[in-house]
TrEMBL record, chains A, B:
It comes from Symbiobacterium thermophilum (strain DSM 24528 / JCM 14929 / IAM 14863 / T). Residues 19-31 have a biased composition (Polar residues). Residues 64-83 bind DNA. GO terms for biological process: negative regulation of DNA-templated transcription. Residues 260-269 have a biased composition (Pro residues). This is TetR family transcriptional regulator. GO terms for molecular function: DNA binding. PROSITE patterns: HTH_TETR_1 (PS01081), HTH_TETR_2 (PS50977). Signal peptide: none annotated. Residues 1-40, 225-269 are annotated as: Disordered. SUPFAM superfamilies: Homeodomain-like (SSF46689), Tetracyclin repressor-like, C-terminal domain (SSF48498). It comes from the Bacteria. Keywords: DNA-binding, Transcription, Transcription regulation. Residues 41-101 form the HTH tetR-type domain.
Amino acid sequence: MIQASVSQPVAAGEGAHVLQSQNRAEPSSQRRPAGARERGELTRDRLLEAAEEVFAEQGFFRASIAEITRRAGVAQGTFYLYFPAKEEIFRELVRKMSHDLRRTLQEAVAPIIDRRDAERVGLETFLKFVLERRNLYTVMRECEFVDPELHRWYYRRLAEGYVRGLRQAMARGQVRQLDPEALAYFLMGAAQMIGMRWTFWENTLPPREVIETVVSVILHGIDPAGLPREPRATPGTSEGHSPGAPDADPPAAPGADAPGPEPEAGPRA
Amino acid sequence: MIQASVSQPVAAGEGAHVLQSQNRAEPSSQRRPAGARERGELTRDRLLEAAEEVFAEQGFFRASIAEITRRAGVAQGTFYLYFPAKEEIFRELVRKMSHDLRRTLQEAVAPIIDRRDAERVGLETFLKFVLERRNLYTVMRECEFVDPELHRWYYRRLAEGYVRGLRQAMARGQVRQLDPEALAYFLMGAAQMIGMRWTFWENTLPPREVIETVVSVILHGIDPAGLPREPRATPGTSEGHSPGAPDADPPAAPGADAPGPEPEAGPRA
């Protein structure tokens, strides 16, 4: 997953125009010949990696641009060729994390036909992502205080794909009729807290019984058959007799949890 | 709920010994005669209220002691009679929020016999708490970056009472046999995300359909009857035939979600 995002770097937000318009050569320790543009991208990636480390260790407010450029191995002035301020490299990291997480979830659940299987795979994929990307997890959470609007964008963007997948599953009778946005935030919150309690605090995936409990509660919670006093929804016909039936999305993209890896420029672009 | 916590102020953490040992008179605008001890508590409460506002508006790292004392209407030096540093008044606010929330939940669910009713009431009580105490919600979340250990303590303490209530409900057959800690964090995460999305972002309680979706998924998810392929647990006898049956807590305290309002000194006491 990480490889994918490295080979196709996320299109830049506000920082990108600085790179494209100025595109200056800067001190570089690269050995192989490279065009100024390519060197620029490498330097930008190095700055982002260094910033991710420094923000995670020291927090946004304590972190300094001097420390970021020191770890990236570039002169302090080079920073400003890519990012106008500490806030902007922080925002770019949040956008990158959002993109990487949604792409990772999409790749994991796209081949899955049944939403109920997708819920388990989605949870496990999210927890693995948190384990591999602990730093970015911290960065994203601090975002609430650095840029509240971007923090909301992060959750709204994640919820959009979730809502789409749930609506499709409701239309197919795999999930009973519920408010899809409420259900999406409910499930996101559950996954995030489990990720915090086990993956983030203990730096390990949760024990099997924790995963089984969470998956079991979700599957029973959303299962049309779990409603003994209500008629069981028949797959493919549930739209007809349930209140609030959602738009029937084309079934061509089952379980698509996240939009594709399109370029992103954040909520203000 | 808030009145209750005002009339019985939370026992102090590390800050308290400063008050008790020094207990000096300080400038006060109180008109009625009061002992030095009582004036001290009033001043301490004023400082806490001012700090809550300033932290919520400016964030911990930008907030200054000068601004806190200005809003509390006391001289800047007075601050140090009660709290050794900005970090300490912040920690005291987090402990106070933890205490107030657990007490509020306990008072709401204590009279409820059936855990399934307690889940709905607990969720609604939590959301009302967030609406009334928006500032403290922000403060508690920033705690992850100010004092990670205290942040964990906050969730562990909340989970403890939740686990106790769930174990009792499992023993009574109201909730099927699941990992109680996993279930507690799952439910806490779901409530927190719903609180963020509606109550915190939009400064209002969620619409009825959101509450109904969340409660419905929880109740179906935990209901022993929602498991058509497993024997239904009979109330009062479920401990005998279920794997992992928890300690049978005495049924004298049904639905007790939170420990009582005992003095607290935080995770380091």
